[in-house]
UniProtKB/TrEMBL annotation:
<keyword id="KW-0812">Transmembrane</keyword>
<keyword id="KW-0472">Membrane</keyword>
<feature type="transmembrane region" description="Helical">
    <location>
        <begin position="63"/>
        <end position="85"/>
    </location>
</feature>
<keyword id="KW-1133">Transmembrane helix</keyword>
<dbReference type="Pfam" id="PF11397">
    <property type="entry name" value="GlcNAc"/>
</dbReference>
<feature type="region of interest" description="Disordered">
    <location>
        <begin position="1"/>
        <end position="61"/>
    </location>
</feature>
<feature type="compositionally biased region" description="Polar residues">
    <location>
        <begin position="17"/>
        <end position="26"/>
    </location>
</feature>
<feature type="compositionally biased region" description="Basic residues">
    <location>
        <begin position="46"/>
        <end position="59"/>
    </location>
</feature>
<protein>
    <submittedName>
        <fullName>Uncharacterized protein</fullName>
    </submittedName>
</protein>
<dbReference type="InterPro" id="IPR021067">
    <property type="entry name" value="Glycosyltransferase"/>
</dbReference>
Length: 604
């Protein structure tokens, strides 16, 4: 970006109007078309600060005296009515009772009719997009039939396309900020698409029928349903992209890269949790005003960019930010997670879907630590790399009850497994691509603030027990900004700049994280928070013990069998894939009896 553009972006001089559409989104303001120095931006900053101020002053105890007083007045009123009613002659009492019954009956009838109208309108809202408003009665009947079909699979909501949280503000919910679980700070956030993950996987290996009931297509079938399962052509399958950004100047360039280099950008929806402060540039703000350059990706595809903006002072680490990101999922066929400082390759969407489908495993999750951007992409946006990084190297760190596993640097070499992604034991947060139901069934835990290391092993184990299998992509479709922008990136703020505001929360969160995945057996379960443990917990398809035994992790001794990469680089894939279920719903670990043992225990 030119210096002049950057100066305009960060300037706070007299604002000018650019016709922006501003609407409230959660604890921030969504600006659909941000021009330089716009009045909308000034209003957004002002409203965001006001919301944070109000949130901090809000307390559940404030209304207690008022509620008690109201309850007392109501009780006195009831007492007086009872005395008056008892003193009435019998004939008047019977007339009064009859009138009350009539009023109650009429009220019930009005409520019933109102409910029918609301249900009818809401059903229409769920089934149709803007173009569907002119659908015939025959299409409405088909949609009703689709509703009945979906209802046969409890716990799985309907999906539609296009979709945006901007249309759901009326249905947001309030949650306690995880750094203030005393209720002193509340946040207004989108609801989950599927509020109960267990209702989807039913605490067992998910069936193919249920998996195929999740995932939208950009084109509806002849019955008006966007939920077409594997009958949806690959180039019409929607992709949800979740990005958590903390005051990151490269975030908007990442979003631009996603759309500008996709083969089919019309099927991509990006959801950003944008944690910013002061003059930080928001992730949806183009480098130039859309009025002067409407061809920019952030202008062309603005309706497919959802930004949940929150004040950086409320940030408590990537886990909470990504939790909010998972709340923005709305039933897309595929889901992807990326860092906020990533550059994508040309035709990345077609490439990664082809790799995903090559596994023939609907429970596959492609994930890796990304290679550095330096020397990785040519001037046409094509990858120059032929190597494959794999996730296989982890070690314990920390002391005492906080000792946990964290991933170390990972090996990268020419693929020994060719023609498809390669099986690996671990999941990485920087890049993840899977079917959409992975986000719906393994949502980030709300109650893990101030966690930076350890989240990846938590998601790995939760996903494994629900039945997911992890793979290293054969080809990288995006690259990470480590070295190329090192001077600029070193100046980017980190979430722990506010750590003094949340002292002690990280230790409590780590106890919960380890407790849920059975990694701290020495700790009394009563010592950690069990809130919504089923929602953010383990599945019933596999056990954590099976994972620990297979990959050489000793949770009591807090040690690992090292040199696991020797097994993962070629042998693991060849051992595991023959046990893929015939319906493509995951590897059957009941047929695997392997236990990794370090072949060189005396070597580093």
């Amino acid at each position: 970006m030119a210096p002049r553009d950057e100066q305009q972006t960060r300037s706070r001089k007299k604002p000018i109007s650019n016709g922006s559409t501003v609407s409230s989104i959660g604890n921030g303001i969504y600006v659909s078309d941000n021009g330089s120095r716009s009045s909308a931006r000034e209003e957004r900053l002002s409203r965001r600060k006001s919301r944070v101020k109000k949130a901090r002053s809000r307390s559940k105890k404030e209304g207690t005296p008022l509620c008690l007083a109201a309850t007392g007045v109501f009780c006195v009123y009831l007492f007086l009515c009872a005395v008056l009613f008892k003193s009435m002659p019998e004939e008047q009492r019977q007339v009064g009772i009859s009138k009350v019954r009539d009023v109650v009956q009429k009220t019930k009838e009005r409520v019933r009719k109102t409910k029918e109208k609301v249900t009818s309108k809401f059903s229409s809202f769920r089934h149709y997009d803007v173009a569907d408003e002119v659908h015939s009665d025959e299409s409405a009947s088909a949609a009703a039939a689709a509703e009945v079909k979906i209802s046969l699979l409890p716990g799985i909501p309907l999906g539609k396309w296009p979709v945006s949280i901007r249309n759901e503000e009326f249905n947001f919910e309030e949650i306690e900020h995880p750094g203030h679980l005393d209720g002193s700070v509340m946040m207004h956030v989108p609801k989950f698409w599927a509020d109960d993950p267990v209702a989807i996987h039913q605490n067992k290996q998910m069936t193919r029928e249920r998996a195929m009931a999740i995932g939208t297509c950009i084109v509806a079938d002849d019955k008006g349903s966007f939920m077409r399962g594997d009958k949806c052509p690959e180039d019409q399958r929607t992709i949800f992209v979740a990005i958590a950004s903390y005051r990151d100047f490269q975030c908007r360039d990442t979003v631009d890269s996603i759309f500008s280099r996709a083969s089919y950008p019309e099927r991509v929806r990006v959801a950003v949790v944008d944690q910013i402060a002061g003059d930080d540039v928001s992730c949806d703000r183009p480098h130039e005003p859309c009025e002067t350059n409407p061809k920019q990706s952030l202008c062309r595809w603005k309706d497919q960019i959802d930004v949940f903006q929150m004040d950086a002072a409320l940030a408590v680490g990537p886990v909470f930010a990504r939790h909010l990101g998972h709340r923005l999922y709305r039933g897309e066929y595929y889901s992807m997670q990326s860092d906020a400082h990533v550059t994508f390759t040309r035709n990345w969407d077609v490439d990664i879907i082809q790799q995903m489908e090559a596994t023939k495993d609907d429970m596959a999750v492609l994930s890796t630590y990304l290679t550095d951007l330096q020397g990785s992409i040519d001037e046409n946006g094509n990858s120059k790399r032929n190597t494959r990084p794999i996730m296989c190297n982890t070690e314990y760190e920390g002391v005492g009850e906080e000792k946990h596993l964290r991933h170390l640097s990972q090996p990268e070499a020419m693929p020994e497994i060719k023609g498809m992604p390669q099986a690996q034991p671990y999941w990485a947060a920087g890049f993840s691509f899977s079917r959409g139901h992975f986000v719906a069934t393994v949502p980030y835990d709300l109650y893990q603030p101030m966690i930076f290391q350890g989240e990846e092993m938590s998601i790995t184990l939760r996903g494994f027990t629900i039945g997911y299998d992890f793979f290293a992509p054969e080809r990288s479709v995006c690259f990470h900004s480590y070295e190329k922008f090192a001077p600029e990136r070193n100046k980017v703020h980190k979430f722990w700049e506010h750590s003094n505001m949340y002292a002690g929360t990280g230790k409590k969160a780590m106890k919960r994280l380890l407790g849920i995945v059975h990694m701290n057996p020495e700790v009394d379960p009563s010592e950690w928070d069990h809130r919504e443990e089923k929602k953010y917990g383990l599945g019933g398809a596999r056990t954590t013990d099976k994972f620990y035994e297979t990959f050489g992790i000793h949770v009591k001794e807090k040690t690992v069998e090292r040199h696991l990469c020797q097994f993962v680089k070629n042998k693991m894939h060849n051992m595991m894939m023959p046990n893929l279920r015939s319906d493509g719903m995951g590897i059957d670990y009941s047929k695997i009896h392997f236990r990794w043992k370090d072949p060189r225990p005396n070597e580093p």
